[in-house]
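Meet today's protein:

…
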Amino acid sequence: MEYIASSSVKEALAEALKEALAKTLEGALAEALGEALAEVLTEVLGEALSEARAEMLEALAEALEETLFKIGRPILNIQNRMKTAVRFRIG
């Protein structure tokens, strides 16, 4: 049994299929773009975070070195004075 559809039914079916396909493609494209954007953002933010972490560690190391120098200098002076005092008492 063969069904003969009118041209208006065929046009309506064609339009419905076209819209469904467009929505499907649009959804797939949006999903793919979202995934690609997420990957790019993850990589870019990861690199930025790594750079910021490296800069922060470098600044921390410099501050620590400066602090240790400021603390160590008086300790070294005290040690030298104690050695000198011991020498004078012994000698």
